[in-house]
Amino acid sequence: MATEYFNEMYEAGAVRAPYARLEDWTRAMPAEFRQMKQAEAEALFRRIGITFAVYGEGGDPDRLIPFDMFPRVFTQSEWRRLERGVKQRARALNAFLLDVYGRGEIIRAGRIPARLVYQNEAYERAAAGFIPPRGVYSHIVGVDLVRTGPDDFFVLEDNCRTPSGVSYMLENREIMMRMFPALFRENRIEPVDGYPDLLRRTLASVAPAKCGGEPTVVILTPGHFNSAYYEHSFLADLMGVELVEGADLFVEGGFVWMRTTEGPKRVDVIYRRIDDAFLDPLCFRPESMLGVPGLMDVYRSGGVTICSAPGSGVADDKAIYTYVPEMIRFYLGEEPVLQNVPTWQCGRTDDLKYVVENLCDLVVKEVHGSGGYGMLVGPRSTSEQIEGFRARLLADPGNYIAQPTLALSTTPTFVNEGIAPRHVDLRPYCLVGERVELVPGGLTRVALTEGSLVVNSSQGGGVKDTWVLAE
User: Fold this and answer.
1) Backbone φ/ψ region at 165: left (φ over 0), alpha (ψ -120 to 50), beta
2) DSSP 227
């Protein structure tokens, strides 16, 4: 029997209120005009340089991300609930990081197994015992949300290290406003263009105590071969800060300095977009050419703030994810506003038995996987794929979690034949510093292949503008 999916525009044959004005917009749009606008959007993306990189698959690695012109719409009341839940989750995740790099009270209380934290490859012992400014470890938290009904939202995963994609959120809005200005005159839509200023203010608010005067903030990139390099340069430009590589920085006198044409300039806050392992060759991988030798010594002595903090990845590990509701209760004394997707930990004997017996019905993911890779979508896989994955699962059960195949909501999407429902998710970006804040919106990713539930751009997914209607 076919699965029923919640259509965010239509319910019981009628147009839902948030989309009321978009129905006339689409009905009045001839196919030729739509195709012209789609070509215009692609030309804008290409001219601006909005690409993402996929290596190892042959061909041009820099690809244009597919953009769907049909916006996704949330009411103000829907957004308020999501905002409250995302902020709650970001506070709890940061409290967890502060705890496990300190006394480990949640582990002492038996709420989370010690092995999942201290034996986790994302746990950095070099960060233990040091409290970063304001006790904040993860300064940009991307929470991936899925919807299964009018009032049913679930957290699919947390991204506490360096969640990407915010440049698409901003550029999707910019291009929609340029192509369809009348839509924005007729609909009161909350703005998202304040994000760069909000990000800069958040980063400045966590400058170290040794910082005197206005903090100097930089974005540290691995370089132009990185898949998200466009976003690094885009954000640096909008924030009015320097984009630097490891070779542009050096350590001296207990501080980090940036090489400039006017001589060395002290750096107070580094928004790093490189992995922990490459940050400092004296502390992590000695062969790394991307980081700054001695950076961790300066960090631990309070001479510079690294955002997000080294070791913050232990909070977004998929095995740790299952305990986030417990973190909320333990640290905040609250009930979770947003629920997790039910999850089986394959490292547990009973969970593994259930997963192995029901692979054809489940989604199985690597604990440290990302980008839609290293996973099995049972209902969309062949028997050969399932058997091959079963062998990998049994060889290393602790490396996997499993979840039910959710009936992800759909939104109207422009396809070659006209308009059709496609599955979507949502990634809002929560900024944590002196305050915990979100802009009203996020990145909606859409699975453009009919029937697909995988929205990642590296797996054929696209993006669309996300509207929050103003009251």
Assistant:
1) left
2) T
Rounded to an integer, what distance in angstroms lies between the CA atom of residue 119 and that of residue 454? 30
Domain 344-404: give its CATH architecture: 2-Layer Sandwich (3.30)
Strand order from edge to edge, sheet including 255-258: 249-252, 255-258, 265-267
Residue whose C-alpha is closest to residue 94's, from 1, 206, 173: 206
Of 265, 275, 264, 271, nearest in space to 305 by CA:
271
pLDDT category at 371 given cuts 50, 70, 90 is low
CB contact at 8 A, 320 and 117: yes
Show me where the domains of the chain are located. 10-340+406-468, 344-404
Compute φ and ψ for 374, nearest 5 degrees. Answer: 65, 30
Q: Which two tokens stand for residue 247?
A: 């070779």
Distance set, CA 222 to CA 14, 58, 227 (Å)? 49, 22, 10
- pLDDT tens for each residue of 183-204: 999 999 999 999 999 999 999 9
What is the pLDDT at residue 60?
47
To the question of pTM greater than 0.90 for the whole model, the response is yes
